[in-house]
Amino acid sequence: IARVYQQDKQFDEARQAIAKGEELSDSDEEKEYVHFLYGAAWERQKNYDRAEQEFRKALAINPDSAMALNYLGYMWANRGVNLDQAVKHIQRALEIHELTGQPPSSLGVEKRGYSFPYWVTKIALWPQDRTLLHRRIANRFRAMLERGFVDEVEQE
Q1: What's the rounded Cα separation, in Å, for the pair 74 and 55?
Q2: From residue 24, how far is each of 18, 21, 34, 91, 134 by CA, in Å?
Q3: Which residue of 87, 98, 102, 108 is surrounded by the most CB atoms within 10 Å?
Q4: DSSP letter (8 states) at residue 10
């Protein structure tokens, strides 16, 4: 609910929803996610100091929080501050992605200890005329063959 409010730029309502979630949070994983949400809310309002404080709270609970590492790293990088640390945070988030095998968009979602209370529907949009798509696939396939993709696969 807080994310819906954030997307609609209703930041006071978003923080109220996060605060309600904070009241109901029992586990460290839930508390970590609450601090992540607070951090994201403050960042969207350009209150970077408060955002950083919340992301650091999430990382104090779980130093391997890929969501918090990634968001904080990109928040710094986008503003051109703490660039060395930003790179380290983003790299660590990617390492966690590689170790878990989960896509970066899902890191931390299953670890919260509770299920998301809404149905999630995946959708895709594509043009009526798929000629361009087919041409791009064919070009990419030819490029892979030219680079020796078949030889690489046959060697293993």
Answers
A1: 12
A2: 10, 5, 10, 32, 50
A3: 108
A4: -
**N- to C-terminal Cα separation, the chain:** 48
Interior CA angle at 96 toward 29 and 18, to 5°?
30
Tokens of 55: 């992301």
118-148 in b/e burial notation, b at 16+ Cβ within 10 A? Answer: eeeeeeeeeeeeeeeeeeeeeeeeeeeeeee
Residue with tokens 């029992």: 26
Predicted confidence (pLDDT) per residue in 127-145, tens digit: 677 788 788 888 888 888 8
Task: Find out whether 3 and 37 touch, Cβ atoms under 8 Å.
Answer: yes
- Tell me the whole-structure pTM to 2 decimals: 0.62
- Tens-digit pLDDT profile for residues 73-128: 989 988 889 888 988 888 888 888 778 776 655 544 433 343 444 455 556 666 67
Nearest CA-CA partner of 6 in 44, 39, 33: 44
Closest CA to 89 of 77, 100, 79: 77
